[in-house]
Amino acid sequence: MHVLLLGGTGSIGSAILEDLIAHGHHVTALARSSAATEQLAKRGAEPLSGDLTEPSKWVPVAAEIDAVIQVAAAFDTDMGSIDKAALKAITATASARNAPLRVIYTGGCWLFGETGDRIADERTPFSPLPSFAWMADNWEWLNNEPSIAPILVHPAMVYDLDGGVLHRYIDAATQGTSIEIWGSAEARWPLVHRADLASAYRLVLERGISGKGYCVAAEDGVQTGALADAVRARFGSAAPHTILPVADAVTRHGAWAAGPAMDQRMGSGKIRRELGWVPQHNDAIALFSR
């Protein structure tokens, strides 16, 4: 398939790009700088010069491709309106096509709010953080557009040995300083390795059902304190972790910081059963302990 990838230079997007290329797909990826253009070309993509905030300059390609994967995001911008403008531009271009355009949209585990011992899945009602409610709103809008065949992917917290959601923990451990846990060390995170998430996006692209959502978690809930201890051990840090109250984390870092403080569990039974997704990384703590 010929895919337009938005966010192809990010941690998640670059993994998706590599997986798509490895499985024979043709990827056009948005590049907003010469460095991004060079990076994408080296990885086998066809760079498309443009910025997500100016969709009129790149959206004509949507008339020629088979699908769009949207994984571009930033916490320090008005991402909701930027995302909506890009979706509107894609939809307008797709309206002239003979068949609806396949669009893989990204939600996330934070749309389900605190779950406690319940395991969220595709049937769980949304209860998003206020700062991320735009994702649910934009998905609802996209799902009602006749020129689009949309599919929603809910990634768990995404990690790898270089960081991802664990980047703050790794930075602190390598510097020998205390790992700061927001909220409680007993809070749980559903987890997925970035390589496994990439394969999930590809399977959804190839075989997913339009109008449906897929939750993607290799582990349904791992305590943040245990993760911090594993990271400390890997990098030989003797500094114990500390707890930062949620309100203080939000004050320092912004409203999004309430997300990592939530106690959540999320499953992935549907994508395993229906699309044959088999994650290769099922134990983050063991991976960091090697």
Number of helices: 10
Order of helices and strands: EHEHEEHEHEEEHEEHEEHEHHH
List the strand order in the largest sheet: 3-2-1-4-5-6-11
Strand content: 15-25%
Mean pLDDT: 95
Total strands: 13
Helix content: 25-40%
Task: State the assembly state of the protein chains.
Answer: single chain
Largest sheet: 7 strands, parallel
Low-confidence stretches: none
> What distance lies between the first and last C-alpha atoms, to the nearest angstrom?
38 Å
Radius of gyration: 19 Å
Structural class by sheet pairing and helices: alpha/beta
What does this structure look like?
The structure is a single chain. This protein has 290 residues and is α/β, with parallel strands linked by helices. It is 36% helix and 21% strand. The chain contains ten helices and 13 strands. It has a seven-stranded parallel sheet, sandwiched between helices. Helix 1 crosses helix 6 (194-207).
Summarize the structure.
The chain is α/β, with parallel strands linked by helices. The protein has ten helices and 13 strands. α2 links the parallel β2 and β3.
List keywords for this structure.
290 residues, alpha/beta, four-stranded mixed beta sheet, 13 strands, 36% helix, 21% strand
How do the strands and helices of this protein lay out in sequence?
Layout: E1 2-6, H1 11-22, E2 26-31, H2 34-42, E3 46-49, E4 67-70, H3 79-94, E5 101-106, H4 133-142, E6 148-155, E7 157-160, E8 163-164, H5 167-175, E9 180-182, E10 188-193, H6 194-207, E11 213-216, E12 219-223, H7 224-235, E13 242-244, H8 246-253, H9 269-275, H10 284-289
Parallel strand pairs: 1-2, 1-4, 2-3, 4-5, 5-6, 6-11, 7-10, 9-13
Antiparallel strand pairs: 7-8, 10-12
